[in-house]
Amino acid sequence: MTRLQREAVDALHRxxxxxxxxxxxxxxxxxxxxxxxxxxxxxxVRETALGGLPALDLTPDTATGRGQLLYLHGGGYVLGSPATxxxxxxxxxxxxxxxxxxxxxxxxxEHPFPAAVDDGLAAYRALLGEGVRPDELVLAGxxxxxxxxxxxxxxxxxxxxxxxxxxxxxxxxxDLTLAGQSxxxxxxxxxxxxxxxxxxxxxxxxxxxDPAHPxxxxxxxxxxxxxxxxxQAGSNELLLDDAVRLAARAAADDVDVTLRVWAQVPHxxxxxxxxxxxxxxxxxxxxxxxxxxxxxxxxxx
Length: 301
Description:
The protein has 301 residues and is of the alpha/beta class. The protein has helices at residues 3-14, 24-35, 86-96, 115-129, 144-158, 182-185, 195-206, 240-252, 277-300, and strands at residues 43-50, 53-60, 68-72, 99-103, 137-142, 166-170, 229-234, 257-262.
């Protein structure tokens, strides 16, 4: 990464227009306008359904037919959709050569916790029900979608379902108590969030429920039995300690886990693919991880 790339990304976030007292509709529209990027040219995108949910199917020309990725988008459980994350999900699909499906899970405040987890589990269960073998299935998600990916797998395990071959999470939000030290130590470095802004997502999602509930904050879940995990984060984010503590918790629970932190880049920096070297490096690393996990699963199966 060049210094100019990092400074440009930082300035992009710090200078983003802020609407005073925005309505929920304005927040969602602003998020979509800021984040939405198209899938790569080699990825076909079509609308579909999964587990009773609308979804997007992203299939690269190079997909082999073996292996499938379930991608859960971020947005604080309040914003976002598969459409806003077509770019990052499509990049991962293309690089890993995997057919990818991204469900449009329900959002707060209309549908508070545990609606998102119920929908994540429904999507996962539906893929297995369609005949996708667990050793041919991998998960990924960013921010709240990263937390949701972990919560989905905990719920799947508790429901007696088999685990997939692996899971990748980008800047996962896994502690809705906001107890990580980086909430304070990174407050000046983070160009996107304040603690208050993150709390503003947690409050409507929880709707008065316990923020330490293990399916709302999988940082506090028993992670035993989950598949190999890759956690990626940037050092310039309030949620840095969510990633670090998730990796530590996974290791303590005997999960095969890899933590990778890139210096001086922000929350879900992977969204800056094509403009930030680290973003492309991280997506390539994630794609390799998923490919290795799928090959390992197929060989052992």
